[in-house]
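Journal club prep — side note

Before the paper discussion, L.F. wants everyone to see what a predicted structure for a comparable chain looks like in token form. Sequence:
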Amino acid sequence: MNAASFDPLAKQDIGAPQVPALDVRGLSVDIATSRGVLNAVRGIDLKIRSGETLALVGESGCGKSTVAKAITGLHAVTNGSAHICGHEVTALSRRQWRPLRALVQMIFQDPFASLNPRKRIGSILSETMRVNGVPKQQAMQRSAELLERVGLPKTALRSFPHEFSGGQRQRIGIARALALQPRLIVCDEPVSALDVSVQGQIVNLLMDLQKTENVAYLFISHDLSVVQQISDQIAVMYLGRIVEAGSREEIWSAPKHPYTRALIDSVPSLDRRRKDLSLRPYLAGDLPSPYNPPSGCAFRTRCAKAQAICSDIRPELQSAGSKHLVACHFSD
């Protein structure tokens, strides 16, 4: 079976090729909790074209996964919009979302928790296709092909999730995400639960599949060593907002925001010069409470460069050259 013979959205308008796979504008998400309303995400702008990878990075609790859930319809959006292949999805009901589910899929952080332990792999992979009207025989045939594409034998169809290692289970999760030939895959910390030796294999697999499928990735991670390898664009989040964004080369070689520099300096390295850089006092203390964020610049309580203006005025994203954006009063 070739790719042309399987396309559940073949009769739908999925947008022209030049339309971004993902276009997010001013996305904000509020979450009602027992402690009050949490402003989890504020004014997020993202754009990813087919075949590109945008990495969304930051510490745990900064709002990365909330952005992913809002984009995929798993969390209500307070303000802003998200377009997937030209389709506005932020205000859709579950019924309206259903025909668009094939456009966007997710790869989850925990490869074991994301797979039903009571079902065989063949059933797990074919279920999504069956729900979208693919005949059983064709769905099972494609499931076998997907397993081979991610480096697993066809015989795995008869096995249960507990019979595989963590890396193998994540390969199954990737195969499931590819089942409906999506235009966008949201990778939510897809390698953080894996051994370091396995992480590289999964990242290489994702990169190889992107070349053949021309799929776009929103790659969520706190590990910049992984992000450096897979990303085309990088957006750095801090306490619900993007504080710096640009190409991988610009962000990695010339970071402008103190928080970005601290994240890069924290990446383990055998280079003595990089080790010396990590001693620079860019980052201290813990992430502030999102229920009571600091006034002005949210990063000022941990920043060695902070001055009076930082507590009075919140810096907006400004151009720092080419398509490089930074939100800092002292980025120079």
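L.F.'s comment for the group: Residues 26 and 170 are 32 Å apart (CA to CA). Keep this in mind when we get to the figures.
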